[in-house]
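Need a sequence for this fold. Nothing fancy.
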């Protein structure tokens, strides 16, 4: 009988604690999240401003050389498994070609966006996208997806892509590239 009363007392003490949550009030939690979002927006704006200023300064110097610069960015499978979100910056000359190569394994159901989301299509255009399977007879092995872009005019834009399964609402991996065209 004493055990029954003891258990009832413990349950009565634990129920309010379980209903109260983690101890942080919802309004405090929401305020912290809102502040984080504001700081992230400010950081993104500052990075874009830095990229624009850098592009302007370097464009002036690059104009004198007349060299068209091309670049290839590659993220292999080991790097992809260690990081879920990539934010990279690259610069290229007008008329230059930018190639992005990312590890991909569609056999798992995951796939990168076929068409990259380009923030300003007057600065950069996607020329091509292709999947290359793994070399040899590797069942379930990862291949790579390659996107080719051409720089059309001076400026700063971003390329965004997601790696996810078609059935998933949110992307498992994200790739965001800020491109400075000089």
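Here you go.
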């Amino acid at each position: 009988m004493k055990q029954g009363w003891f258990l009832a007392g413990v349950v009565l003490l634990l129920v309010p604690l379980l209903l109260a949550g983690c101890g942080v009030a919802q309004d405090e939690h929401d305020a912290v999240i809102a502040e984080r979002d504001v700081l992230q927006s400010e950081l993104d704006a500052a990075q874009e401003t830095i990229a624009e200023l850098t592009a302007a300064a370097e464009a002036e110097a690059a104009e004198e050389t007349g060299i068209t610069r091309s670049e290839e960015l590659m993220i292999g499978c080991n790097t992809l498994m260690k990081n879920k979100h990539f934010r990279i910056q690259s610069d290229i000359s007008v008329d230059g070609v930018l190639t992005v190569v990312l590890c991909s394994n569609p056999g798992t159901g995951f796939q990168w966006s076929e068409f990259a989301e380009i923030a300003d299509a007057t600065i950069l255009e996607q020329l091509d996208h292709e999947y290359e399977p793994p070399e040899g007879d590797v069942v379930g092995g990862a291949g790579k997806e390659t996107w080719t872009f051409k720089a059309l005019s001076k400026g700063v834009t971003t390329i965004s892509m997601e790696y996810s399964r078609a059935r998933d609402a949110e992307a498992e991996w994200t790739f965001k590239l800020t491109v400075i065209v000089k």
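For context: Residues 26-65 form the longest helix (40 residues).
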